């Protein structure tokens, strides 16, 4: 026995297709190579600290300044 699907109106399907095609483009950001390296270093330091059961290290002023730069 075949089941009928409740299909959405075409306009709704087109709208969902449009917003789905954008994906996470609104939240994406362009990072410089230096910013990406700093972010990876911070992530790795946090991972090591968590593994050892310690507090994560504080981010230095230099690293904060690099992360604030606009590409």
What is this entry, summarized?
With 71 residues, this protein is an all-alpha fold. It has helices at residues 10-22, 33-52, 61-68.
Assign an overall shape.
Answer: elongated
Alpha-carbon Rg, integer? 22 Å
Q: What is the overall pLDDT average?
A: 83
In terms of structural class, how would the helical and strand content be classed? mainly alpha
Number of helical elements: 3
Distance between the termini: 58 Å
Strand portion = under 5%
- Report the count of strand segments: 0
Order of helices and strands, N to C?
Answer: HHH
Helix content: 55-70%
Stretches where pLDDT is under 50 for at least 5 consecutive residues are none
Sheet with the most strands, sense and barrel status: none
General description of the model:
By secondary structure, this protein is mainly α. It has a domain at 30-71. Helix content is 58%, strand content 0%. The protein contains three helices and no strands. It starts with 9 loop residues before the first helix and ends with a helix. The model has no long low-confidence stretch (mean pLDDT 83).
């Amino acid at each position: 026995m075949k089941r009928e699907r409740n299909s959405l109106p075409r306009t709704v399907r087109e709208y969902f297709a449009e917003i789905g095609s954008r994906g996470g483009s609104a939240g994406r950001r362009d990072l410089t190579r230096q910013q990406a390296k700093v972010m990876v270093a911070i992530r790795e330091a946090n991972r090591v600290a968590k593994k050892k059961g310690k507090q994560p290290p504080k981010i230095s002023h230099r690293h904060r300044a690099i992360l604030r730069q606009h590409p």
